[in-house]
Write a structure and sequence with these properties.
The chain is an alpha+beta fold and 256 residues long. It is built from 4 helices and 12 strands. The chain has a domain of 172 residues: Sandwich (Jelly Rolls), CATH 2.60.120. The structure holds calcium ion (2 copies).
């Protein structure tokens, strides 16, 4: 009887083992490290500067705060839903809200396009943080500001109290040449309600799924698994260009 029971237990363990093994490593074996082909390109233009957060992480800062007006293009590894948060600033004197030795009220403008089809438009949320000169009074200029909310760039930040961004035309913003040299097709310039007086603006937008419909791997939590390596890149011998290397291979008779 005892022997029969032990045989039964052993038999059940054999049956259970593959099930247990499978349930422990269902997806881990399939996960690979991301490659550059998994990234998307972000084009961002701000009049005058910006900071860009994606899913709570700072991913890009305008490298030229004031002029010339530049486009920042960076590669990002997307995961969806994708929470985009931006702080955009016009150029302004923090005491007066004006620029150029307090002789002029400058205006802002922000536009963004990702190669997955994500674009700025009036669906984005906007919150003005600093504005002035109040009532366009340039004789005795004053500004008003509110505190930047804690964690305004976080995925779980509650932006339900924010208004919608307002769309502006190219003519209203007057972008400089770098804007025309980059792909912003389908994107709209946005700002808060007053493109001249509002000098610091926060934007938020959630991209629920890739707008281009392309299926993409979610590479978050990569530190919790052992991912497969992508194919190795080839190492370029130092000091040799491609033609020289090809020529060298030919001389060695390895490959023509
Ligand atoms: Ca301004
Ligand atoms: Ca400006």
């Amino acid at each position: 009887m005892m022997k029969w029971m032990m045989q039964l237990v052993a038999f059940m363990m054999v049956l259970a083992y593959p099930v247990a093994a499978k349930s422990q490593t269902p997806s881990a074996a399939k996960i690979r490290k991301p490659q550059m082909s998994d990234t998307i390109r972000a084009n961002v233009y701000a009049d005058n500067q910006f900071m860009l957060y994606i899913n709570g992480d700072l991913v890009a800062v305008d490298s030229i705060a004031f002029v010339p007006h530049n486009v920042i293009s960076v590669d990002i590894l997307p995961s969806y839903p994708m929470t985009i948060a931006v702080m955009a600033k016009d150029n302004f004197d923090p005491k007066t809200g004006m620029e150029y030795a307090n002789t002029k009220i400058g205006d802002g403008g922000f536009i963004l396009k990702f190669s997955d089809g994500t674009v700025t438009n009036g669906d984005w949320k906007a919150k003005k943080i600093s504005w002035g000169p109040i009532d366009r009074d340039t004789k005795s200029p004053r500004i008003e500001s509110i505190e930047v909310p804690n964690n305004w760039y976080a995925v779980d930040f509650d932006d339900r109290g924010w208004g919608k961004a307002k769309e502006y035309t190219e003519e209203e913003v007057g972008p400089k040449q770098p804007y025309f040299d980059s792909d912003f097709q389908g994107a709209k310039f946005i700002w808060s309600d007053d493109i001249a007086l509002d000098n610091v603006v926060l934007f938020r937008h959630v991209v629920k799924a890739p707008p281009d419909g392309k299926e993409r791997i979610d590479f978050r939590n990569l530190n919790n698994v052992i991912p497969e390596n992508p194919p190795r890149g080839s190492v370029r011998p130092s000091g040799l260009g491609r033609q020289e290397r090809d020529g060298q291979r030919g001389n060695n008779g390895e490959k023509k």
